## 1
Amino acid sequence: MPNKSYVNYKNRGMFLEHILNDTNQYYLREDKAIIYKKPTPIKVLNVSYRSRKTTIINKAVFSETSTLDYNGIYKGKYIEFDAKECKSKTSFPLSNIKEHQMIHIKNILNHGGIVFLIIFICNNFYLFDGKDLIDFVNNNDRKSIPIETIIKQGHIINEGYIPRLDYISVVENVYFKENNYGEFEK
Amino acid sequence: MPNKSYVNYKNRGMFLEHILNDTNQYYLREDKAIIYKKPTPIKVLNVSYRSRKTTIINKAVFSETSTLDYNGIYKGKYIEFDAKECKSKTSFPLSNIKEHQMIHIKNILNHGGIVFLIIFICNNFYLFDGKDLIDFVNNNDRKSIPIETIIKQGHIINEGYIPRLDYISVVENVYFKENNYGEFEK
């Protein structure tokens, strides 16, 4: 049964992007991390030139990306992640992650980078580690990650005011303070 | 006096992008580094929907980027750079780097990232370190970096066949083998 307040999925997508952009600007201002959303790849098919400085694109289409949407640096480490909103309340469909993105996640892990998903499901934000994602795919035939697995293996990110979604505190706990997760309080 | 073979600056720009994309694909295939060019940021002004899956962009303009064009990971370290072709044979105009990009370069340095320019000038490719760039700007009133400074402080990147521009070998030397630069031979 669809939840009325979540009917407009397109706006929900923009909502998550918006609070992440706000958060990333906060991190930049506070000099805590440098994370940017990559521009959406667009294939330009036709342009016209109004002046030397103004090019108008008359025809273009969105194209697919091989990577995840956000990347940058925190404490010298390479960080990459994608943010996904999930309308299902029972599981996160793996169709959200394209096959070449899955390969990309494995590559980043192999090169020592930090890679994860931020999953918005059941009104909660979870950081779900890239390695846990790969392990799940390798060890299951399921086409979605059940909510129980996300709750168990994921790390909750609390919503706040400033910053709105302090995922770097969770990154700090999960990747920089090993064996200390759960004791951290901001 | 313009060199006839360099009259088409637009194609020259594409040429450098092309050999870097080739090189980055090679690094990816060989599992040596993961470096991507960020998509050019485009501001979409008008779209039409042909079907649920096909969105046609009818009007858009190119917008400015705050970051550099290429970023990724090598040996766990965050790497970011921009590639610039320079038509002048005597100096590299600093107008090539926007003020917010200069701030971004400082930020990356402060966070322990590797950041540089690849400058194509006088038919040679040079890796010019971000810190050297910042130091030059801080210590000079000049609006361009003279070729002598680029030759002295920059690190030449040899053109090859596969990969076409092995800048990662130079990164290895400059950032991972301190005090050993110049002795390295590929």
## 2
Amino acid sequence: MPKVAPLSGFPELLPADRYVERSIIDQLARTFELHGFANIETRVVEPLDRLAKGGEIDKEIYVLRRLQGGEDDGTGLGMHYDLTVPFARYVLENAGRLEFPFRRYQIQKAWRGERPQEGRFREFTQADIDVVDKNELSFHHEIEVAAVMAEALVATPLPPMNMQLNNRKLIEGFYRGLGIPDPSAVMRAVDKLDKTSIGAVEEALVQEVGLSAADARKCLDLAAIRAADVSFVDDVRRLGVEHPLLDTGLEELAAVLDGCLASTGRRFTVEANLRIARGLDYYTGTVVEIFMSGYESLKSVGGGGRYDALASDGSTTYPGVGISFGISRSVVPLLARGVLSGSRPVPSAVLVAVADEKSRSVSRRAADRLRVRGIPTELAARPQKYGRQIRYAERRGIPFVWFPGAGGAPDEVKDIRSGEQVVADADEWSPPAPDLAPRVVGEDADSSTDRRTGKEDR
Amino acid sequence: MPKVAPLSGFPELLPADRYVERSIIDQLARTFELHGFANIETRVVEPLDRLAKGGEIDKEIYVLRRLQGGEDDGTGLGMHYDLTVPFARYVLENAGRLEFPFRRYQIQKAWRGERPQEGRFREFTQADIDVVDKNELSFHHEIEVAAVMAEALVATPLPPMNMQLNNRKLIEGFYRGLGIPDPSAVMRAVDKLDKTSIGAVEEALVQEVGLSAADARKCLDLAAIRAADVSFVDDVRRLGVEHPLLDTGLEELAAVLDGCLASTGRRFTVEANLRIARGLDYYTGTVVEIFMSGYESLKSVGGGGRYDALASDGSTTYPGVGISFGISRSVVPLLARGVLSGSRPVPSAVLVAVADEKSRSVSRRAADRLRVRGIPTELAARPQKYGRQIRYAERRGIPFVWFPGAGGAPDEVKDIRSGEQVVADADEWSPPAPDLAPRVVGEDADSSTDRRTGKEDR
């Protein structure tokens, strides 16, 4: 077989790193379930007419054909590039069998044929939560979804997260209060603040959108407002613009910000950032972007918001609110930089030594007695000298080696880190709780209790 | 949007059914980890030259191209149709960073563009365990992998499983003992016993392979041997054929059978079935097929065996042994037939009632006190009359409704199945353990403790 090279944009993890990714997925899922979100998975393909909307993303869609399908080999199917499009289709397809408001989380891969760069992959895993209702969605779900995602992120060992909030009603109400007839033209121009200078945006607002210099200035003043508490309301009020939609937006944004404050601390900050818009047509209320502190170069690692029409079958519309968190986008760079790692590449807490091939069944019985009590255990692959079996455990980071007693002697177990070896009964002995499973090492993985048990596989 | 129809061959599950699938995946993973198997995931695509081997499967491969990639839009990538091809590539790619023998499990989707039928899907999930070593793999891993898969399946609520074992050395040794120069021609003919009559196979062995009538008879006698214990050894011996490879094969098959006996009982049976061959070129020792009792029409729901060259980089070969279990193949038909189901479509054990929108934060605080102790809890979406909020819980199968006390009154909790309502403290009350999470209902899901809590979403 030819030499094998990795495929750019399709990250794969070694076992210890994969343990970290799985832990984070499990922790997110646990918080989502504590809040009553049900898990679903959707197929990875969708009909092309549902995926391709004529936007920028279209050219990144991977389309499927059969290898030897003859002339008519098109399947009409493409791989999903997010979890929102398939979720919308799932809701429509199963509307009669779901209870609304429907609360779901979904943790799956998605695919985009974009140019790979740090944190941007062609195959990536993301975690989405959404609440979708029929025809009307209560505002309190916007608070809830942001607060649940905040709580979920805090429960992981990921670096501190910063959630930035805005509200589309606030922006639109402000522009309307200024008497601007086409708020989306302003939004489009202001959205370029990321890529260009304030002066250039100001000029565009005046020259292209046709605002007065004073109005353009006010739009930029609005976009400059950031606050970690509800003081942003006063900042906006000071700009002297009035509109009922602006009032609603301010009230909603303050409520969502307030709902996330319970999670704030060393691990999580939240702020109103009135520049956040997240595209132009999609969202209709709360908008959210999530940044990982110290890793701002990755850009946002999550985002979402309120949308009034996730899906529609003509007679019923399904408004929703959801936030997506990029697991690959955040975790893979942290693993690559060694910020996070797994304490060992195997689940085994114990290696049972094998004296000789004839007595492998004796070792197996000891292992079974440990396993029945939930202790992950493997047997030495070869009946080598005990020193070599200990090194076998060491290379895998397995903290304990078990020696079955020969000729009526009791079993013994050795902590290969301290070298301490004691008599032990396989029906009673347990490793200390922190040694039972691999652990996530680094960042906020409770590093005070960390004892690395050996070499890792990375 | 157009009316949405399901896509044939791409099964999707409603939340209660998805809970069943996830439970089974978690239970399998738990057993694999208890035996020291580490989890990995591989990307879903492989270079086409690695996937397409000129066999039957080639025309079922899904190939990726970019939607708007221009003339040169081929990616050279296809979606994997099993987890063995990507695992072999992963081992080669990471050989320098893995410890051998390398024990891994992998639970992922795979794709085949075949004609959908019951249990056969175009997108399906499977669970694989393999042990791979460098250059030489100890035989005891063949016992281990079969025994671990047996133990893992018994720990799920799936119907009883029947594992059928054979050994390629046994078959080849027997044929060589008869003086047959081309054992694979005989194997190819005998392999057709599934599809044709014994008489037709006998004729083919004589006419096409060129065996004597007596030898052909003996080959068929061998293929007819089945036994649930090591008595098959005597049955083979009685055929009077001798060969050292046959001796090895008999010894190995007896040892693998013996290793699986610990799991036998009402939930699992194992037998030697000397007709099992599993293809022609790939396997070199133990071969395994798994059938689900009562669902033999699904054909095998799992299989695998020993292969001497999973992968090779020219200088090093990587022999291994592995078994794959079809999660979609077994679980989806059971869900469709209603044999298995989830007890409720939401994780929530408690619905906290909301008296009015103003006091939602009071309800939220009660919910948080329950959640912090691991009790999945959601809030009523609307402050309707309590009777309607109770029906909201009922429709979701949520067993308990929590009523925050108003004006200094204590909180109360109602078991909506019995109607019993008691005073309760959100810092202390817990639901009975079986109500904490949804449960798998049916088959061997410990149905004695089953109390269905309400309607499901299927």
## 3
Amino acid sequence: MTYPPVLIGQSVAAIDTPALVIDLDAMEANLQAMADFTREHGILLRPHAKMHKSATLAKLQIAAGAVGVCVQKTAEAEALAAGGVNDIYISNEVIAPHKLKRVVALARTLAERGGQLALAVDSLHGIAQLALAVQGQSVRIRVLVEIDVGHGRCGVQPGATAVPLVNAIAEHSTMLFGGLQAYQGRAQHLRTAVEREAAVAQVVTDVQRTITALQDAGHSVPLVTGAGSGTFGLETASGIYGELQAGSYLFMDRDYASNQAAPGQPRFQHALFLKSQVMSLCATHAVVDAGHKSHAIDSGLPAVHGLPLDYANGGDEHGQLRPQQPGGLLPALGDTVWLIPGHCDPTVNLHNVMIGVRGGLQNGVVEQLIRVDSRGALT
Amino acid sequence: MTYPPVLIGQSVAAIDTPALVIDLDAMEANLQAMADFTREHGILLRPHAKMHKSATLAKLQIAAGAVGVCVQKTAEAEALAAGGVNDIYISNEVIAPHKLKRVVALARTLAERGGQLALAVDSLHGIAQLALAVQGQSVRIRVLVEIDVGHGRCGVQPGATAVPLVNAIAEHSTMLFGGLQAYQGRAQHLRTAVEREAAVAQVVTDVQRTITALQDAGHSVPLVTGAGSGTFGLETASGIYGELQAGSYLFMDRDYASNQAAPGQPRFQHALFLKSQVMSLCATHAVVDAGHKSHAIDSGLPAVHGLPLDYANGGDEHGQLRPQQPGGLLPALGDTVWLIPGHCDPTVNLHNVMIGVRGGLQNGVVEQLIRVDSRGALT
């Protein structure tokens, strides 16, 4: 009884609404721009697959030069591994013993395929739990220590606080110290380039003094990994980071596009759109069939693509469109309206499929149905 | 590779996190309280299944006396019908010709089973499109005219504006005028009982003058349907409403619970919880593994159940807990924390399954895994 939203080869006009549509031409331009950037700067790219949640797109990124992907959840790693992704880093802490058993089982699977699994830690407790789970399992897990470089969420404080954790990792032959996880999520969304530069300068100082403390304790730091689509040019320029975790660059969203241009970074195009339809109309506003069950609102409401209209939240299943200027025109009943989601990651997570369109939103053709493999993979 | 979050018969402690858990004892008390209320007041109940999205729970409500369910989307209706629900009202407008074909096909299926499908309209265009879709299809569709009773979204203005629509419906032997759809969503969430009473008094006036206009034009109005969990006692007391659409009463959420008690309504219990785990801890805060990919934030952040902690949004996959009082205790690494979602409807839509627990959150046992059948059923 589940109807596909469209069939491959049909026109854009045939896509049932609301539906998440990828402009493949724009996405491939973004893919190429990032591949060019990382190659030119000699830095590794491990894009965050929590954004697109798709094994197909993860493999596309790896084919374009990425070393693997990041995820936030064990279940995401499992879903992407099932879809053929072999190098996965869970850039987040896992504490629960039964979940760590899954992590270890997946690490073995990936190692047998010639790939690898890595995991972040920020506590001695987490390292001890991982040690119990991996004991006798004939696999070695790459472990990165997360430091809090200003995001204020997970991670130990920068500096000498990281030393006991790396000491503990070094005590276990089942673990390999992989380096530092240092991600400043807040810096990504600061509006001006000056603010982002100041935030990343602090990040670099924090990472540097942690490296110094670890070196003083006799540990070398093989890698610093982090950065996102809002600042990766700055982390790259620092010379300290060896790997970038940017994910949103592939699709872009309204929030990232609101940032002022980041010096030293390529500009990316909007590649992710929500197709909606006007299904009610009155004198003051039009109502589209896309509410916050079809796009996330944590980073603000969607923009209306190509029309001078503002989107107001109409609840779970509706959006209200009003002219930006008094007397402005409203669309007609039945019209298609393209929305640009405020935040791509949790928007993708609401959908089972993304529809890849070739040749533009107006007259394009559906080329690909891309499954959201790790949608709802929460654990 | 998809691991079930828990197995039936296991303890609550075994539920992997984050996971959506139903306290079955509390849910059944809510179910019974609403059944008692509607029976005592002689009013029909057609709960909104956009809330739980589950055929199992829809059938439970029907077994307890509900006449059927509402949904907002054609795809939701299809998913619930596939799960054995036979009486479904799409309380929303459908405009697209290909979607109306699906509506008609589903109406035939339900009629063959002895059930029925109904649909809301608010435009002559919508009625004309439905007429084209249903022509020659040997089924009659019950059509309700939506009026805007203060919600400011869909619906024609109250009063004589509804007359041409009912005239148009009456011209088609394939349609049956089912009455008025009159839902004031904003009234549900007004904090004080006095504000809600004033809003519903206006609703009742608007409905009454629409009925009068239709009667003057020679139409009888077989039913007025609407109301939600925040105000249904008021619509019931009006004597004009014949059917209630309340849905959230079954689970309750933090937002509804923040309302002052509604005079003339039973009190409902929290029955929906998000089980989460502390996976990072520092001096100032604890971090749980549940962010806004596991609960909706459109109506505010979740409450922390039974602990003097405030939840702050930590992004897609994390939540930050801080003591409500300076010097208050934080939970330990690995501790379970139960969250009460801000808004149940879009929270359920993030999950593939709800875990039904018997005997309480502390020592209960998993009795049922309830599939979210219409999760992501957006079209």
## 4
Amino acid sequence: MSEKQGVTPRNEDYSRWYTDVVQMAELADYAPVRGCMIILPYGYELWEAVRAGLDRRFKETGHRNAYFPLFIPESFLKKEAEHVEGFSPELAVVTIGGGKELEEPLVVRPTSETIIGWAYAKWIQSYRDLPVLINQWANVVRWEMRTRLFLRTMEFLWQEGHTAHATYDEAEEETRRMLDIYRDFAVTDAAIPVIPGRKSDSEKFAGALHSYTIEAMMGDRRALQSGTSHNLGQNFAKAFDIKYLDLNNELQYCWTTSWGLSTRFIGAMIMAHGDDKGLRLPPRMAPIQVVIVPIYKDEAEKTAVMDTVWRMKATLRDADIRVHVDDREGQTPGFKYNDWEMRGVPLRMEIGPKDVQKNSVALARRDIPGREGKQFVPQEGIVTAVRNLLDDIQANMLKQATEFRDSNLTEVVGDYQRFGEIIESGGWALTWFSGDREEEQKIKEDFQCVSRCFPLEQPYPNQTGPSIVSGKTAQKMAFFARSY
Amino acid sequence: MSEKQGVTPRNEDYSRWYTDVVQMAELADYAPVRGCMIILPYGYELWEAVRAGLDRRFKETGHRNAYFPLFIPESFLKKEAEHVEGFSPELAVVTIGGGKELEEPLVVRPTSETIIGWAYAKWIQSYRDLPVLINQWANVVRWEMRTRLFLRTMEFLWQEGHTAHATYDEAEEETRRMLDIYRDFAVTDAAIPVIPGRKSDSEKFAGALHSYTIEAMMGDRRALQSGTSHNLGQNFAKAFDIKYLDLNNELQYCWTTSWGLSTRFIGAMIMAHGDDKGLRLPPRMAPIQVVIVPIYKDEAEKTAVMDTVWRMKATLRDADIRVHVDDREGQTPGFKYNDWEMRGVPLRMEIGPKDVQKNSVALARRDIPGREGKQFVPQEGIVTAVRNLLDDIQANMLKQATEFRDSNLTEVVGDYQRFGEIIESGGWALTWFSGDREEEQKIKEDFQCVSRCFPLEQPYPNQTGPSIVSGKTAQKMAFFARSY
């Protein structure tokens, strides 16, 4: 029974563990079309939590949502040279509409810089129209050959912000502001200690001046790019003729940005926090924060227990705590404990006849296994007790993930062999790096990894060091790691 | 100036009035792909209000959101005979993916009964798995030749609910429950007095056993189908093999339903309430409920006025009233009044030097033009005053729309010529109708209209009457009207 119920242990097969968790916790399922997925209700509730956390932050910083078409004329993609090169191998193309062959095929959006660029060119006339701060929640399609649920799927859900500004500085400020919103969301809400940084030239977005990223360490120590923010410079403004009249009545190209975070982030939450029992969800993101499991042997006990159970549920719900009662018949409490642990619910409340007698309940934390994580608390004042525990779990999960991350980061200076050993052992290396494409290509060939980012917080600001491959002077240190 | 600012009067050209409102109020814009639209921030905020109002109701009735793929294998569409006949002329088809011709073309979903049917067949094993109550928020594509912003676009946003049940009765109950949720949302939140009813056989959804609808009367008296709920019987269950083991351990086909409401509903709000000044938004749906317009002649006045303006704004915002201050320089208060009336803001607050002196503000209602709709109220207690007024406006808009609807409904019995006159004059006719396809076809040919619905609330329950074309005995009365 317990074998059938459990997920594959992580050290046995991490990849299998991941798929087990996604499927057994009913987060997602495979679709009949290769590379697509069905996001199941529990998984979609996580996406709703992502959406709510980001949407609030976007609106607080003056952004508004809009919606642009799914279909983009094929010719649009070709207007920005790097962009078309980056995306054309990944396109899904509609060639038939209403039973007829189309004169110009339509591309299913892989991202919307081009069609939004077209619109901005139409809408923006003068400096008074700037900045334009728009976000859209949408599905996008990229024809991927090797897909994995949430991490890389042919179709995925995301938000893509697109803004236009009068100056480089304003665009850069926006790009960094949105990166910081991603960082704050990941750290504060999802308890993932992401590292914000800048992408190297080889790794930046197709068409961007430069790209920023938040990089997260997964349970197998691989890196996952969890959100990106791009300063597009004037590349798309020039390709789509997005111009404004400045204060001197002269036409200027705009400076644009784009930034996105996708359902991939759900994969980040699974792998940053999960353990051999399954999912572990940070309380702020958890669709169910508290699950109540009633314990009784007969009808008399059941009546008394369920009375307390429904009262506790109502009390917590009225305090806006997301609570669920597992009143399934024919399952033992032990089965239910395992089931909800596997589904990552942060806090379990057990209520049996003794608890009813003592006016107490047992609370078991998902983040601390066994007796250590269990305590008995009075029913009176349960809301405060639960709130404090949820806050504690939230903080502790961030602490655990941060310690795990930091214990797997190694600084290496000028020693390419040592660098390779770190990467090959699965760790992250922090090293001086010039950012040159040739150097990065060599590292890729030697160790099957590329740079994750130049962290914004440099350990030795204003210093230089020997770039890891060439030894020539590098201005910044970068993280390298194998990645998803 | 006022000509440039204003929309085309409705009686001059209703269709032009509609397009003016959509574009001048910045609700939507045309896209570079024929038949597609860009939903602008103000329009998308209306959609967010629709989404919030419905999503809350769906969840309160036990439904959960999920997400199914955009692409459907072409073969799926062909499994339900009526369904494929209804939808195949409207399909957009992806034939190229990742640079290669696909073996099986993929259809961009026009609706998701088929792919969800495939999933339900996989998920549902026994009566214990039932009911399945799932909704999805998604984009869909139907290749339309004649499109109009919001009302009929090639791509639109909607929600589609899909449920599976053990019995016909449960499926029918669900179908009616969701229709009633649409009715309640339309009436209570959007102040549109929709008529809930059943579609005739000719007008039902392709593949349904029967379809229900909420029908709304627009300002030009045309009908707009604003939301539909379908009892699909066992049609899709048989096509996709959705079976469950019943209590007797026998395999049974499920009974399924589907129900949807789309961005078309924004068109309904525009046309149910708009007047010659532009949009009129019911307070519960309005992105901005109160706009504050400051009035001053010089810097000294401005300082005093703006101080009160920001104080009022903070007071209203803290009470969760959606408030906006129009502090644009270089525009007269009169221009701003017209502008916000055109954008349909329910309540305008004017604050000038005299108001500052008297500790009062002027409030002007959008639903009652001129002096009659204007009053001066003390700043103290402003929250209560504004709340009461917004409630009043909400109720009055529903009253106005209901009176307009009822004054344009005419009952006609057994007089086909009179029936035709009502339809040709643009009104709605309520008449006995057999529901026969041949009769409906004749009406369509004679008067370019079809039945809107058999209203659930029949004026003469348990009676019969002569069907309008054939004269044979009809069990129910139906509404007929020209429609969008």
